[in-house]
Amino acid sequence: MVRVRKPACGGGWAVALGLLAWGCASAAVEPVAAGSLTIPPGLDRYRPTPEQNPLTPERVALGERLFFEPLLSLDRSLACASCHVPGLAFTNGRRVSVGVSGRTGSRNVPTLVNRAFGRSFFWDGRTATLEEQVLRPIEDPLEMALPLDEAVARLGADYRYVHLFRAVFGTPPDSATLAAALASYVRTVLSGDTRYDRWVGGEPEALSEEERSGFALFRGKAGCVTCHVPPNFTDEQFHNTGVALRGGVFADSGRYLVTADPEDIGAFKTPTLRQLELTTPYMHDGSFATLEDVVEFYDRGGHRSRRIDPRVHTLGLSRAEKRDLLSFLRSLSG
Question: pLDDT tens across 57-77, in order?
Fold first, then answer.
C-alpha cells in the first residue's frame, strides 16, 4: 500500500517537492520518490494514465495533501481520507458513508485500492475516469457537500495552495488541476505482492495446502473467478446478485440509475478482492459483516429474482470447502 502520513506540526504546514516549503520544521507531506510510483509485483505492469495528466512525484504529493484537506468540505470537518481511511484499505469500516453534519448515504464506501486499473467508478459506474470520480464526493450533498466553485475559491484564497499549484501545474488552482492532483494520488494507491502473488510468481510454499485448495475452488466449483478476475480480482462489470432485493423489490436500482436499461436494475460493479480483510462490511450496501456471511450468501445462490445474473446459483459447498475458500480469500490481503 502507498505510504501516507498526516501533518506533523501545528497550524503551519510544509510541502517539500524540491520546489516550495512553508512553516514547519518537518514536512507535512514528504517528497514522493520516483521509485514509489512503481507497480508492486502481482499487478498488471501497465497503469492506465491519461496523456493530459502524466503521473509525476509532484502531482502525487500535491494530491496526497489535498486528500487529507478538510478545507474541501462544506463545514471544513471532513477530507477524502475521512471516508477513505488508509489503515482500512481506503474504506471506513461503516455500513454506509457518513458525510458532513452526520448525513448518511445509502451505499458502502468502496476501496480506492488499485482503482488506477478501473474502467468505471462508483458502485454504479457513473463516471468513466478517475479525474471525474475524485470531484464527485466534494460536491455530493451527502458527502463533503461543497460546491466545486467554492472549493476552488477556497484553494485560491490560500496563498500556500496558490504557490503550490503554480509550481506543479503552472496555473492557480482550478477544477481541472484539483482533479488532476487527486487522481494522480489515487493512482498510487496500489496493493500487490501478497502471499498469493508470491505463489503465482514461483514460491510454492507461499500458500498453504488449505489456501491452494481454496484457490482451486475459487476457479472451479465456487465459480468466483467468473467475475473476480485476476490480477485485480474484478471484471469491472456490473452484475445483479440479488443483494439489493428486499421483499421482492430492489431497494437500490444500481446501474439502472445510470443507463435506464431495465436489465441493469439491481446490478452493481464487481469490487476488487484485494485487501479483503480490511474492507468490511461487504456488498454495495454494507449488509454483510463478515467474509463468512458473503460465502454463505453465494453458497445459497444469492437472492433469486428474474434479473439475477445466471452465474449466481446454488454451490453446495461443504464446511471444509468453505473453510478453504475463506483461507484463500484472506491470502489476498497483506
Answer: 999 999 999 999 999 999 999
Are 27 and 15 in contact by the 8 Å Cβ rule? The answer is yes
Per-residue pLDDT tens for 228-272? Answer: 999 999 999 999 999 998 888 999 999 999 999 999 999 999 999
Among candidate residues 128, 153, 186, the one where a domain is terminated: 186
Euclidean distance between CA atoms 113 and 96, whole angstroms: 18
Its pTM stands at: 0.90
**Residue whose C-alpha is closest to residue 80's, from 144, 147, 158:** 144
**Structural domain for 168, as ranges:** 34-186
Looking at the structure, do residues 173 and 272 belong to the same domain, yes or no? no
CATH code at position 226: 1.10.760.10
Residue 282 lies in a domain: yes
Quick one: three-class SS letters along the chain? Answer: CCCCCCCCCCCCCCECCCCCCCCCCCCCECCCCHHHHCCCCCCCCCCCCCCCCCCCHHHHHHHHHHHCCHHHCCCCCCCHHHHCEHHHCCECCCCCCECHHHCECCCCCCCCCCHHHCCCECCCCCECCHHHHCCHHHHCCCCCCCCHHHHHHHHHCCHHHHHHHHHHHCCCCCHHHHHHHHHHHHCCCCCCCCHHHHHHCCCCCCCCHHHHHHHHHHHCCCCHHHCCCCCCCCCCCEECCCCCEECCEECCCECHHHHCCHHHCCEEECCCCCCHHHCCCECCCCCECCHHHHHHHHHCCCCCCCCCCCCCCCCCCCHHHHHHHHHHHHCCCC
Examine the domain organization and report whether 172 and 204 are in the same domain.
no
Do 135 and 261 fall into the same domain? no
